[in-house]
Write a structure and sequence with these properties.
With 367 residues, this protein is α/β, with parallel strands linked by helices. It contains 9 helices and 14 strands. The protein has helices spanning 9-23, 67-81, 114-134, 162-172, 194-207, 233-240, 258-262, 270-320, 322-327, and strands spanning 28-39, 45-53, 56-65, 90-100, 104-112, 152-157, 181-186, 214-219, 246-250, 265-267, 332-334, 340-341, 352-357, 360-365. The protein has a 5-stranded mixed β-barrel with strand order 1-2-3-5-4. Helix 7 links the parallel strand 9 and strand 10. The longest helix is centred in the C-terminal third of the chain and has 51 residues, at 270-320. The protein is rod-shaped and about 180 Å long. The mean pLDDT is 87.
Length: 367
């Protein structure tokens, strides 16, 4: 045993260091996912980078951004991407491979390509839309029949979000006095946990036992990467298959997300979503007013027609009244019993008859 040749651990690690660093002697661009991240203000940023395949994770390595470079890269990425670097992001990094006899393999990050991260998110979004279309989920929500007069509304949003407060104020303080019932189902609205949180909120809506007319998913503006959670396939599929019409108001005018594509309808701001509810009631109110006017008009027309018929009958009755005939110069002849006689042959010599004029009666004797 004592005669075997050996090298020390340090010598082994040194040999590995020389070999590894000679294989990749200069900086290279590497694409990976940030699976873990730890950064402190004014200090270094430590990352765990990984890559996953169909069977799960296939590669993992530690990385570091030194403090003096981290301040520059952090600011540059935020300005270009509109958000901070975060766990779960796909990134393109310029790195230098290093190997330490004490800490093993690691990468030193020198640069970060924010454009790649934005482009990768867009690629994933398009793939998700294509998958949903292939599965017949894109138009599924639009086959639902919404109620004409919405009242019970479930809202999925962050409780302290300004957009949620704007929605409530615009809806409940409307100038028409329309009443609504809104129930909040709180959820995370950004970050890698947001899709699961919103799915859980949808499940809570379904399990509530309340007959909600609509489900509203609300979030105000944000960066493209902040809003990337609304391009998540699992969230989009949950919305598409939900049995109640789901409406979304996420981001800015120029934004369009996968969740917008599968929802029953979408608008760009929470207040615009409140307007949609108000418009439905305004339209119904106008329809009721229209039919009320038509009904009133129909009754008035019928009443007027009946009045015309009454006037006509009254005129006929008046025109047939004997008193009116007498006023026009005619006379009526009655016999002794008061029966009206119309022919001279009705009388014989000696009969007493009475002649009625408009101003009195005259009795006569037939000669």
């Amino acid at each position: 045993m004592m005669g075997r040749e050996y090298i020390s651990l340090f010598e082994l690690q040194s040999a590995l260091k020389d070999g590894i660093e000679s294989i990749v002697p200069s900086r290279v661009w590497v694409k990976a996912e940030i699976s873990a991240m730890k950064a402190r203000r004014g200090s270094h940023c430590y990352l765990e980078l990984s890559e996953s395949g169909e069977g799960g994770m296939v590669a993992k390595v530690k990385a570091v951004v030194w403090a003096n470079n981290w301040r520059i890269l952090e600011t540059a990425f935020r300005e270009e991407a509109g958000t901070d670097l975060a766990e779960g992001m796909n990134v393109l990094l310029q790195v230098q491979v290093t190997y330490s006899q004490l800490y093993g393999l690691s990468l030193v990050v020198w640069d970060i390509d924010a454009v790649y991260t934005l482009g990768e998110a867009e690629r994933i979004r398009r793939e998700t839309l294509a998958r949903l279309e292939a599965e017949g989920l894109l138009g599924l929500q639009k086959t639902l029949e919404p109620v004409r007069v919405p009242y019970n509304i479930a809202v999925i949003s962050a409780e302290d979000a300004a957009g949620y407060r704007d929605f409530l104020r615009h809806l409940h303080e409307n100038e028409y006095g329309f009443a609504f019932s809104t129930t909040l189902f709180p959820a995370k609205m950004q970050g890698q946990d947001a899709p699961a949180s919103m799915r859980e909120a949808l499940e809570s809506v379904a399990a509530s036992g309340v007959g909600f007319d609509y489900v509203m998913i609300l979030r105000g503006g944000g960066s493209k990467l902040d809003l990337a959670c609304f391009d998540d396939y699992t969230l989009a599929a949950a919305i598409a298959t939900f049995p109640i019409p789901v409406m979304t108001a996420v981001g800015h005018d120029q934004d369009f997300h996968v969740c917008d594509a599968v929802a029953y309808d979408f608008v760009k701001t929470p207040t615009a979503l409140a307007d949609r509810m108000l418009e439905a009631l305004i339209a119904e109110d106008e329809a009721v007013s229209y039919y009320g006017t038509r009904l009133k008009l129909a009754f008035m027309t019928k009443i007027n027609a009946m009045g015309f018929r009454i006037d006509l009958l009254e005129n006929r009755i008046l025109s047939a009244d004997p008193r009116n005939l007498l006023k026009r110069g005619y006379t009526l002849i009655t016999d002794g019993s008061g029966k009206v006689r119309k022919k001279a042959s009705d009388f014989a010599s000696g009969d007493i008859l009475e002649v009625l004029f408009s101003d009195g009666n005259v009795k006569c004797k037939v000669l």
